[in-house]
Amino acid sequence: MSYQEYIEIRADKRFGKACLKGTRIAVYDVLNWLTNGMTKQEIMDDFEEISEPMIQACLHFAADKEYKQALLF
After folding, report:
1. What whole-number distance in Å separates Cα of residue 49 and Cα of residue 71?
2. How many domains does the chain have?
3. Nearest alpha-carbon partner for 31 in 14, 19, 48, 15
């Protein structure tokens, strides 16, 4: 999966935070909902504009960011 097709970073949207394309929903928001116990289905039910591949893209984005950070040490 290429998360770039679902995630964008724009200076004029959410202060340059990574967001799902076509929304103002930040990757951080999705990750926070998941860590607080929401299921993928609950997120998709609450936000009709979010699909399961978008949620997976958020997880891939976070994993990639963590991996790149680890390479610096």
Report:
1. 34
2. 1
3. 19
pTM of the model: 0.90
- Averaged pLDDT, 29-47: 98
- Considering the chain, what is the average pLDDT of its residues? 95
Domain that holds residue 57: 3-71
**Which tokens sit at 65?**
């960011």
At 39, the pLDDT band (50, 70, 90 cuts) reads very high
- One DSSP character per residue, 30-59 reads HHHHHHTT--HHHHHHH-TT--HHHHHHHH
DSSP code for 26: B
Q: Are 25 and 32 in contact (CB under 8 A)?
A: no
Residue 20, domain CATH: 1.10.10.10
Q: Please give the torsion angle defined by the CA atoms of residues 38, 30, 6 and 72, in that order, rounded to the nearest 10 degrees.
A: -130
